[in-house]
Amino acid sequence: RFRGRVAHVRVWLEDVNGPRGGDDLRCRMEARLVPSFHVRAEETRSGAMRAVHLAAHSLEHSVARRLGRLHARRRGRA
Questions:
Q1: Which of 51, 31, 33, 34 has the alpha carbon at shortest distance from 42?
Q2: CB–CB of 58/41 below 8 Å?
Q3: R_g of the chain, CA atoms, integer Å
Q4: For the whole prediction, is pTM greater than 0.90?
Q5: H or E stretch covering 74
Q6: What phi and psi, each to the nearest 5 degrees, are found at residue 28?
Q7: What would the pLDDT profile of 40-67 be if each residue is shown by its tens digit?
């Protein structure tokens, strides 16, 4: 969907509670957009796949918003 606009995405997974259990897996994602903007998302859940899925969904919306703002600014200048 964002081909050519996202340079790369970094993903970090962290166990924030150790062996205590609960919602303790944090997924952080950062997308670097072309030309040079960064967009971040973070979710903490009990399962790694759930945390990754929700963070990716949040990141997708953040990227779309950022690109929409950039597009609107460019159209406003013309």
A1: 51
A2: yes
A3: 15
A4: no
A5: helix 48-77
A6: -115, 135
A7: 999 999 888 999 999 999 999 999 999 9
- Compute the distance between CA of residue 26 and CA of residue 30 in angstroms, rounded to an integer: 13
3-class SS at 73? Answer: helix
Which of helix, strand or coil describes residue 2?
coil
Q: Which two tokens stand for residue 37?
A: 């903007």
Phi, psi of 16 (to 5 degrees): -85, -20
Residue 20 near residue 49 (C-beta atoms within 8 A): no
Q: Concatenate the DSSP letters of all residues of 4-71 into one string.
A: TTEEEEEEEEEESSGGG-SS-EEEEEEEEETTTEEEEEEEEESSHHHHHHHHHHHHHHHHHHHHHHHH
* Residue 3 three-state SS: coil
